[in-house]
Amino acid sequence: MKIIAVIPARYEASRFPAKLMQMLGEKTVITTTYQNVVETGLFDEVFVATDSEIIFNEIENNGGKAVMTGQHETGSDRIAEAVQNIDCDIVINVQGDEPFLKLEPLQQLIDVFKEDENQEISLASLKIKLHEKEEIENPNNVKVITDNNGFALYFSRSVIPFHREISFQVDYFKHIGVYAFRKHALLQFSKLEMKPLEISEKIECIRYLEYGMKIKLIETNFIGVGIDTPEDLEKARKLI
Question: Residue 10's closest CA among 83, 70, 93, 87?
């Protein structure tokens, strides 16, 4: 299998505009993310897919590879445009605002497809257990519930499952927005109309579920810093 990584990068993020061009130490957020993905050594090629000349030039000027795309509602749609003429089998979507992703969870996603002999899985992604009530109730944390085989049942910004039976201990999982796609499933996704659940929740992988595709979730202990707010940026700077 030929495996590539694509980092979708929007300049005008709604909650924190220009966040990818903020500095982390001596590098921008997007350059840090790109170089960390390259350094894993897992991929035949790594690209940034962007509609911003600022981000395109930032990556190119730092020796990286970037692809210009049109404007899109979701990162997956942006990646689909970027890879449609690239020869590959598996596409890993690494969020541009997740600069500290490590090798192990990426390898776990790749292994999902190596073990999928019947090629049933369209998409693989990551989840991590939540423990703090504040984190569970935070709508910026997308929660996911899965079946006994690790396949996604639903994603939501609400608290799922609802803990009605208080005598029973229930686990909550946060969805980490790192995706691994079969290329043909990604291209199919980009042609599908958004349905009400995706529009309501603003969670793109719900589209796969609404059209009956299988999403495999891998539990990880990886704790990164997704940069959605200026406060998140300060946390990332402390890690640097």
Answer: 70
Residues 8-46 pLDDT 10s = 888 887 678 899 999 988 999 999 999 999 999 999 999
Tell me, what's the pLDDT at 174? 95
Cα dihedral 141, 236, 230, 40 sign: negative
* pLDDT for position 208: 92
138 to 77, 142, 143, 216: CA distances (angstroms): 26, 8, 10, 24
Q: Does residue 223 register a pLDDT over 70? A: no
Distance CA 221, CA 226 (A): 15
Other beta carbons less than 10 A from residue 182's beta carbon: 21
Give whole-number Cα distances, 47 to 7, 40, 103, in Å: 6, 14, 17
Range 36-57 average pLDDT: 94
pLDDT per position as a tens digit, 93-115:
988 888 888 889 999 999 999 99
| pLDDT reported for residue 95 | 86
In whole angstroms, what is the distance from residue 77 CA to residue 193 CA?
Answer: 11
- For 106, other C-beta atoms within 10 Å of its C-beta total 22
Is residue 90 left, alpha or beta, with left meaning phi > 0 and alpha meaning psi from -120 to 50? Answer: beta
